[in-house]
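Re: the 120-residue chain
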Amino acid sequence: MPINALISTKDESDYYSLKKLDTGNARLYKEIDLYGNDAISACEIKLETKTINDILISTGYIEKIKFLKTDVESMDMPILNASLDVIKKNKPIIFFECHIADAYKKEQVVTFLSFIKKSQ
């Protein structure tokens, strides 16, 4: 069952600018004015954002998570912190990216790692 939503820290609908790339991938821009020429030919679309918890509940997989991988370009910590209920319930193996720039957002990393330590 395909889910047409962006993974986020909250459920909402909002407008984004979408630019299809020659590689078959696409880029989404929230504030297109910040990207100059890179965002030329992007079109505006309305998308829903959903949390991992809500996606898993809606698909019926909420109690079957054994492995959780994120790669969401500097949003891994906020998204994982918004998914603590699923992580606590399932205790999956977690694979995530943490860019050097993310490490400066110490409160997000500390919140997540503290939760993991308490859950063991």
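Strands lie at 5-7, 12-20, 26-29, 43-50, 67-70, 93-96.
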